[in-house]
Specification:
The protein has about 600 residues and is of the alpha/beta class. It has three domains: about 170 residues, 3-Layer(aba) Sandwich (Rossmann fold); about 170 residues, TPP-binding domain (Rossmann fold, 3-Layer(aba) Sandwich), CATH 3.40.50; about 180 residues, Rossmann fold (3-Layer(aba) Sandwich). About 40% of the residues lie in helices and about 15% in strands. The strands form four sheets. A six-stranded parallel beta sheet has the order 3-2-4-5-7-6. Helix 13 runs parallel beside helix 15 and helix 13 packs across helix 16. The longest helix has 29 residues. The termini are far apart.
């Protein structure tokens, strides 16, 4: 009897947690060993029991899946319904939670990360209210076709019968802005639904998907096998490429325009597009309202982005017999104008992985479904052969395009020279000096609408992924997207250009940049008004506002907003620039610091 008592005492002293059976050797990972050693990070009784039964909380299952999918960051802002997930993150060093101070910033950070990293961003919002806060930037992500796995905590499903606080129909709220939305009903469903979300967010057309995560599902234990990620090759090669090669080669040299849409970026096909342009002697335009410039702006065949009005696009295309559109929705227009952006007699050829967009708006003699990069790799030798009889004509067309580009750049430099000594910095001068300071190798995230056309005019980089822009149109994307972009690029420097109005939508992103010590330079282009709206109203001669010069709700000057104080309050260094000669040195110093900074540039309203 004494021997039995001694054995029990030894067992109890060997275990930190009484009343729990010893853990077999096969389960003794480092945390288990620490438990026996009395380490403060010892596993809990629940974890020991889980290792014996195979059961884990739903939140732990979710995180296991994320780790296996290669997720590094969870972008979020927690509330009560997200606490099981937050608790499960303890002791998982490979999953870093990026805290944003408002859900609109959460979504845009994940968007910027996904675009820069080329993989889905994962984010966690706070039930109905938090999802509502994030909807504007979620719509931006949908329009930009950014792959996101969006989740939100939901009230315990046993609680919903009593209409509790914070409860809402998350699936219905999210549905208009995502590819699909679903609520997880049991922890056993997590492996299938979460992996489906990652796969479907990347499938053409890429975009956000949504999962609602009730608290009881996150707390429920399960022994479900999380499995491993599926390997899916999406490099489908379009059919009909010989026909397309003959059609493109048959167009008179110099009478074809190529439009490199956002899908070129996702397919990493800039080099292939450049090779097609070389063979065909064709200029390469960007989309009218782009998410990316997916082409090297230093390439002599780069012709800039299309305008945003249908009449202006039609005027730009008037000298072409055909366009070759790579990717969908490259001719987005903002405000209505009479007529089609594609002029009569101009044929539209397309290649896109999104079958829904082919022939959707414009009649096409031939459009093909397939991955752009894989399809162009096959098309190139076919084009080379089909154009060989007229090689001299295509070469001459290419030389004319190069000369036209040089002329446009000279005109742009002349515009800057004429306004360089203006008493208030002109937008074209501000953009010129900013781009000059940034150089060709630093990523640019642009939400400064008043200067964006000038910024794109002065870009000159062989890096086809340098520039990203607010395609969705809902303000408040740029500053948090720049934070996410830096993370997606391995914490590399990023410069965010933002208008003074847009800077007020998600200023909380400044805190996250400071908290994470990210080398992001925020450049506020401050004209103290909603300049784009005023400009449009001035052009409407029948508007009373234009006739009287009185514009309601468009001035941000009474009182003026102190962006320096705002940046300082979030932990950033800041400076104010009122002279053009000070712009480049200020931005160069900000980037060299390796810290987040804010540079405010006062610009004129013209």
């Amino acid at each position: 009897m004494i021997i039995i008592i001694i054995i029990k005492i030894k067992m109890a002293s060997a275990l930190i947690i009484p009343m729990v059976d010893p853990v077999p050797e096969t389960w003794c990972d480092s945390r288990t060993v620490n438990a026996y050693a009395g380490d403060s990070m010892a596993i809990t009784p629940l974890e020991v029991a889980a290792r014996r039964t195979g059961g884990r909380r739903g939140a732990d299952i979710l995180l296991e899946i994320l780790e296996s999918e290669g997720v590094s960051y969870i972008f979020g802002n927690p509330g009560t319904t997200e606490l099981p997930l937050i608790d499960a993150l303890q002791g998982r060093p490979d999953l870093k939670y990026i805290l944003a101070l408002q859900e609109a910033s959460v979504v845009a950070m994940a968007d910027g990360y996904a675009q820069a990293a080329g993989r889905p961003g994962f984010l966690n919002l706070h039930t109905a209210g938090g999802l509502g806060h994030g909807m504007g930037n979620l719509l931006n992500a949908s329009v930009s076709q950014t792959p996101l796995v969006v989740t939100a905590g939901q009230q315990d499903s046993r609680h919903t019968i009593s209409d509790p606080l914070l409860f809402g129909d998350l699936v219905s709220i999210a549905t208009p802005a995502v590819k699909w939305a679903q609520e997880v009903l049991h922890a056993d469903q997590l492996p299938v639904l979460v992996r489906r979300a990652f796969n479907d967010s990347m499938a053409a057309p890429s975009g956000p998907v949504f999962l609602s995560l009730p608290m009881d599902v996150m707390e429920e234990t399960s022994d479900v096998d999380v499995g491993s990620p599926s390997v899916i090759n999406r490099d489908s090669i379009a059919g009909g490429l010989p026909d397309l090669a003959r059609a493109l080669a048959g167009i008179t040299p110099g009478r074809l325009a190529i439009i490199a849409g956002d899908e070129v970026h996702g397919a990493d096909a800039a080099a292939q597009v450049a090779a097609v342009a070389e063979i065909l002697g064709a200029p390469v335009y960007g989309a009218s309202w782009p998410s990316r410039i997916p082409f090297a702006t230093s390439c002599p065949l780069w012709a800039g982005n299309m305008p945003t009005r249908a009449t202006d696009i039609a005027h730009r295309l008037a000298d072409y017999d055909a366009i070759f559109a790579l990717g969908g929705k490259s001719l987005i227009t903002i405000l209505y104008s009479e007529g089609s952006p594609v002029p009569p007699g101009c044929a539209v050829y397309q290649v896109s992985a999104d079958v829904r967009d082919l022939g959707r708006t414009f009649q096409t003699p031939l459009s093909l479904v397939g991955n752009i990069r894989a399809s162009l790799d096959v098309l190139l030798p076919l084009l080379q052969q089909a154009t060989q009889p007229r090689r001299a004509e295509f070469t001459a067309a290419r030389h004319r395009i190069i000369a036209a580009r040089a002329s446009r750049r000279a005109e742009a430099e002349g515009l800057v020279a004429r306004h360089r000594d203006d008493p208030v910095i002109a937008p074209c001068v501000a953009a010129h000096e900013v781009v000059r300071a940034i150089g060709p190798r630093i990523a640019i995230v642009d939400e400064a609408i008043a200067t964006s056309s000038y910024t794109r005019m002065f870009l000159d980089s062989d890096w086809a992924a340098q520039y990203s822009f607010l395609r969705g149109g809902a303000l408040g994307w740029g500053m948090p997207a720049a934070v996410g972009a830096s993370l997606g690029l391995g914490r590399e420097p990023v410069v965010c250009l933002v208008g003074d109005g847009a800077a007020l939508y998600s200023p909380q992103a400044l805190w996250t940049a400071a908290h994470e010590s990210l080398p992001v330079t925020f450049v506020v282009m401050n004209n103290r008004e909603y300049n784009v709206l005023k400009g449009f109203m001035r052009g409407q001669t029948h508007y009373i506002s234009a006739q009287e010069g009185n514009f309601l709700a468009m001035d941000l000057c009474n009182p003026p907003i102190d962006y320096q104080a705002m940046a300082t309050s979030y932990g950033l260094d800041a400076c104010l620039i009122t002279r053009a000669t000070d712009i480049a040195p200020a931005i160069e110093a900000a980037m060299a610091s390796g810290r987040p900074n804010l540079v405010e540039i006062v610009i004129s309203t013209i």
